[in-house]
Amino acid sequence: MYRLALKFPPNHLHRHHLFILLLFLLISARFTATSSATTTDYRRFKEAPQFYNAPTCPSIDINGTTEMCSPQAVHVAMTLDAAYLRGSMAAIFSILQHSSCPQNIIFYFVASSTADHHHLRHTISRSFPFLKFQIYPYDSSAVSGLISTSIRSALDCPLNYARNYLANLIPQCVRRVVYLDSDLVLVDDIAKLAATPLGNNSVLAAPEYCNANFTSYFTPTFWSNPTLSLAFADRKACYFNTGVMVMDLQRWREGDYTKKIVEWMELQKRIRIYELGSLPPFLLVFAGKIAPVDHRWNQHGLGGDNYRGLCRDLHPGPVSLLHWSGKGKPWVRLDANRPCPLDALWAPYDLLQTPFALES
C-alpha cells in the first residue's frame, strides 16, 4: 500500500506564489475591463470651447416659433453610431468653429433604435454642453431586408440608408436640412451651404461630377435592359456624392421620394442592377434633377478607393469641406501611425481624450 506524500513549500515560498497569483488576477481584471470598454466604445472626448453668435446673427425665436421649427436656424442632420462617433464629434466641432452663427445651428442625429442612446446623448452633451440637438431612433428592420451586398461591407450598414427616411424621422416643421456624413470636416461657414438655392422644383442640391463614368455605377444587366435604362433618358444624369446634400424635406414628403427609392431597392433584390450600397437608388431617382453646389463643398474621396483606401490629393480649386469618403478614415490611419498627408487637416478637430491626458 502506497501513501501520497504532500510536501508544502516553506512559508516564504508560499507567500511568493500567493503574491504572483494575486498579481495575475489583478492584471486579468484590468485587461477584461479595458477590453469591455473598447468593445462598447465608451471612450472619452474633450469638451469643446463654447461658440457664440456674431452680433449680426438673426434670432431663431421669431413670433413665438420654437427653435426647432425656426426657418432662421441652420438645420443639420447626421447619423450616429459607435464606429463613427469619433468622426461625428470632429465634424460637429468643425461646423461650430467655422460658423458665424453657431448658436443658430440645430442638429438632428439619427441613431439605430438598438444603439445606446443614453451613452450617445451623454457623450455629445459632455463635449458640447450648449449644443442644440435631438437624437431620433431609426428602426432599420424595414430596410434590412432590402439591402444588397456591395463591394465593401461597411456600405451595407442599415444606418447608411437612414437618409432615405429623414423626412419621416425629424419634425415635420423642418423644411430644409443639410445632410452630412460623419467622415468630414468643414472649414467654412455652413450657413453658406444651407442657403443654396433649390429653384422651383429641385428636392436636393449637391456638387455634381459629370466627368465621372456614370455607367460604372450600374451593372450591364441594367444598361442592357431597354426599359430600365430609359430611367435616365430625359435627363443629363451625373454622379453626385450623397454624403453632402441640401434637402427640401417638404418637397420630399410631397413627392413621396422615400417610396421611389424603396421601389428601386426592391427591384435590386430581384435583379442585380447596381453594386455600390445606398448611392445608386439616389442616382436613379435624382441624378440630373438636382440643384448645383460648388465643388468646394465636397472635396470627397480623401479616404481613397473602396478597396485599398490609398492616399489621395485634393481636387483642384478652393476648399470649404473635406470629406474622407472611401475605405480609409483619418482617425484609423492616425492611430495606426500610417496617416496620409491630408489626414493632418482632420487631426485638429479630433476631440478624443488621449490616455496621457486622462491620467494627468
TrEMBL record:
Signal sequence, renumbered to the chain: 1-37
Chief subcellular location: membrane
One GO CC term on file: Golgi apparatus
Keyword Signal appears in the UniProt entry: yes
EC numbers: 2.4.1.-
Record-level Gene Ontology MF annotations: glycosyltransferase activity
Keywords, ordered alphabetically: Glycoprotein, Glycosyltransferase, Membrane, Signal, Signal-anchor, Transferase, Transmembrane, Transmembrane helix
Lipid bilayer topology: Single-pass type II membrane protein
InterPro entries: Glyco_trans_8, Glycosyltrans_8_dom-fam, Nucleotide-diphossugar_trans
Pathway: Glycan metabolism; pectin biosynthesis
Enzyme class: transferase
Localisation per UniProt entry: Endomembrane system
Entry-linked PANTHER family: GALACTURONOSYLTRANSFERASE-LIKE 2-RELATED (PTHR13778:SF72), GLYCOSYLTRANSFERASE 8 DOMAIN-CONTAINING PROTEIN (PTHR13778)
Similarity annotation: Belongs to the glycosyltransferase 8 family.
Protein name: Hexosyltransferase
Organism: Hibiscus syriacus
